[in-house]
Amino acid sequence: MTSDFLVIGCGIAGLTFAIRAAEHGSVTLLTKGKPMESNTAWAQGGIAGVLPESLREQGDNVESHVADTLDAGAGLCDEEAVRAILKEGGKTIEHLISSGVNFDKDGEKFSLGKEGGHSYRRILHSKDTTGKEIAESLLEIARKHSNIKILEEHFAIDLITSGKLGMVSEDRVLGAYVLDEKSGTVHTFRSDRVLLATGGCGKVYLYTTNPDSSTGDGVAMAWRAGARISNMEFVQFHPTCFFNPAATGAEARSFLVSEAVRGEGGILRDNSGHEFMEKYDKRKSLAPRDIVARAIDHEIKKTGAHCVYLDVTHKPKGFMKERFPHIHKTLLDFGHDCEKDPIPVVPAAHYQCGGVVTDVNGQTDIRGLFAIGEVACTGLHGANRLASNSLLEGHVMARLALEEILRVHPFSNPTPDAPTIPAWEYGDTAPPDEQVVIYHNWDEIRRLMWDYVSIVRTTNRLERAAHRLINLRKEVRSFYWGHRVTPDILELRNLVATASLVVDCALRRKESRGIHYTLDYPEQDPKACKSITLRRF
Description:
Strand 9 and strand 10 form a beta hairpin. Helix 1 (12-21) packs parallel to helix 13 and helix 14 (435-452) packs antiparallel against helix 15. The chain has a domain at 241-348: Flavocytochrome C3, Chain A, domain 1, CATH 3.90.700.10. The chain contains 16 helices and 20 strands. The chain is α/β, with parallel strands linked by helices. The strands form six sheets. The protein has a five-stranded parallel beta sheet, covered by helices on one side. The chain has a four-stranded mixed beta sheet with strand order 19-17-12-20, with helices on one face.
């Protein structure tokens, strides 16, 4: 199958790009599950953006948003990228509104929220299901466009590049091998303009706010193709994931209680009911996520409690139901009334701040291969993401990437003749008794990462994780080449590759910075204030 644009991923980044690219050529959009199984669709929090002066909070401006982002990023942000992305906030909001997204209003003005690390109220929400509102609106437009073909349950296995085919003159992307999950057939998708928008890697950890689809596929594919990967040690842990050991099911294990709840006055309390964040930061419960997550982790370990509590019982009756209807109802479904009792919460893996290295337009090291959204390392987030910058980044980078693609890969210029692309190589039919081993390795990787590469790290723990992951990679390689591939095997392959990249980057950072905190190097080191970049040769 051949198309002008091949988009892998169906969140805000992939959908926005596909819709805009479809005005210039044919688009094939792949999603390995269903389109609404994305971090975008799961996002409760809002989208940050400085609105026109008449609509913003008095005193706020783009420079203030830049300053907050740089502060959260702990010295590792690319200031040029930060400015290029944040200045587009107004255009992003305008485009989303024109796409049918309904943001909350207070009268004629938008109802702006404030979240941890922000100096002003600049977060737009659609109640507490902002991501779902955005994803549904964009998906409806994409499905109606005659130039967009959306293929559900199509799992991209590997990128096809000229370098991998032995062409040494120029390394450029040629397409991807893709598994049709329903038929089990692997197809070759041909395109000279490939966009990775596959999201993050939260499922590399035992506890995460991410959907099951977040297995680091884009990072792993780009790594195998020879692109640079950077700053994977910076995995952000959301401070407040609902804790209920009696609850079962994927949503119960990963239900996030939005940052916006603290932005609207929620207070973190310990097991005895005491507010504790003042001991860690003057901003208390509104400190940036890395500080709050470490504080909660410390309180839990210090007291031996299973969790801490997010208290909103002091808010007026009906406030949570009105402002956060999804959170309020979901907690009730789990048997918890947050208006009567504080919400038990624990940190959980949430967002990768590193990823595939790109320039400010999303271009990777490989010609024609672009990466945007959470899978990319643009320099916006640095060592710690500022809350609600991610949806903004995905939308802005989609626009910038398309502009760059049309500039450097114009349709008026003929594409060099591509070599004959060989059929995808695969293994034999899997023995039926091997499936349990695959599931065991999946579980072991996630537990290993949670125990040794979590919120607080040590060199000894990281080295143990690295040693075990070497053996796990060998085992997974034997599954991949010895079995007929399934989505489980492909996800396991990507999971172990991404986990190894996180550990390798963490071992190379001999300091604590942002969301990477190690007891062996507890202070920031100005000499170490640089990105950790890895490349497969």
